[in-house]
Amino acid sequence: MPMYQPTKVEVGGGGQVLDLDTAVKDGVLGGVDDNGGFTPSSEKLDLKKMIEELEAIEVPTVFICPISLEPMLDPVTLCTGQTYERCNIMKWLSLGHLTCPTTMQELWDDSITPNKTLQQLIYSWFSQKYMAMKKKSEDVQGRVLEILENLKKLKGQARVQALKGLKLVVGNHFSAKKTMVDNGGVAFLSSLLGPFTSHAVGSEVVGILVNLSLDFESKSNLTQPAKISLMVDMLNEGSIETKVNCTKLIQGLMETKDFDPELVSSLSLLVGLLKLVKDKRNSNGIQPGLSLLKMISSHECVWSSIVSIGAIPQLVDLLPSLKAECLELALSILDNLASIEDGRLALKNCPNTILNLVKLLMRISENCTQLSLSILWAVCKLSPEECAPIAVEAGLAAKLLLVIQSGCNPALKQQSAELLKLCSLNYTATIFISKCKLTRTLQ
């Protein structure tokens, strides 16, 4: 008859193998006091919670249930000497199995014995790992405070390296972000930005700030003209990471109540954003760039400036290559710019405006269709004799009929009907009806 064998566990770098009783007595896995008993923690920790929070950690195989392959909470041992999680082995036995799941030996005794020694070891091991994790979190907070203190003394390249280290810590640990905010880190970093700040320092500071939750006071401090000017310079000259970070930070600052749009009306900023969204080598800058440009274009005082740098033809030519979320941003910008005469004229003079917009009708989303129709209406109304025939030849009439017959909102249908009427003025009834056939459009 097979004899019970003590569960073995391998510990240490030398591969020493001990049975659990020896491991407990010698304190190899911890959790043992001077009297040979389990050392109680000052804080009773929940084993299940610890296992969940330490999910990514590598667990000793002896702690794993062979059935579920999960750490055991309530280990029990069969007569074969194999240990399982209680609920798992009870389910196995309830299904009528009379063998050990691991060895497939026949069970001469179907009783199960609680393995208290292993349970204590599991609890002790996870407790130590959990407390180490908590200490590491506290160490992260201490590290942040240490770097902040050192930054007050460091200059030049040493300051840049310290900021790189701080950015890495803040980017990887939530507790580091909270420590920064709670201990004046935001105000200190903001003080490092100014007219004489090097781009090396500025890019690291912005890279940290963009990952933090900024309150009203912090945002107001960062909207000082000298700080905005530095961000604009780095947006034009920095790496793609710096450009994206500057773009996101400026957008966050614009969300402040009573933000002055004049701060973001500089041609340098607008040109930098256009370069960012047109950079085919780094597509991760397109969405942030368009998002900020859309927010800027919501201010009427900036419309003429955006038109003057040739933004309209560049955005129109980008439309066919944009993804859905970026497409709506670009169309919103063009729709805003179509509110002024110079904007409408630039749209009319761009050879691809009508063709690209007609293609978007009823293809992406109702919002894209609505924005495209709004822009087409502005262009065709500006010069119906010149633009309406081009639009009809591009398939606009047939697309408008689709919109009118669809389940779109009434306002969109009304606008489509008015644009259809405008396009029909240059045709006889028979010719216009032939232009409304859907075959070519659907193809």
UniProtKB/TrEMBL annotation:
Enzyme class, UniProt record, top EC level: transferase
Classification via InterPro entries: ARM-like (IPR011989), ARM-type_fold (IPR016024), ARM_PUB (IPR058678), PUB22/23/24-like (IPR045185), RING-Ubox_PUB (IPR045210), Ubox_domain (IPR003613), Znf_RING/FYVE/PHD (IPR013083)
Pfam families: ARM_PUB (PF25598), U-box (PF04564)
Coiled coil: none
Domain U-box residue range list: 58-132
Keywords, alphabetical: Transferase, Ubl conjugation pathway
Keyword Transferase tagged: yes
Pathway noted in the entry: Protein modification; protein ubiquitination
GO biological process: protein ubiquitination
GO molecular function, one term: ubiquitin protein ligase activity
Record-listed E.C. numbers: 2.3.2.27
Classification via Gene3D superfamilies: Leucine-rich Repeat Variant, Zinc/RING finger domain, C3HC4 (zinc finger)
Reactions it catalyzes: S-ubiquitinyl-[E2 ubiquitin-conjugating enzyme]-L-cysteine + [acceptor protein]-L-lysine = [E2 ubiquitin-conjugating enzyme]-L-cysteine + N(6)-ubiquitinyl-[acceptor protein]-L-lysine
Main function: Functions as an E3 ubiquitin ligase.
Protein name (record): U-box domain-containing protein
Designated gene of the protein: LOC110695555
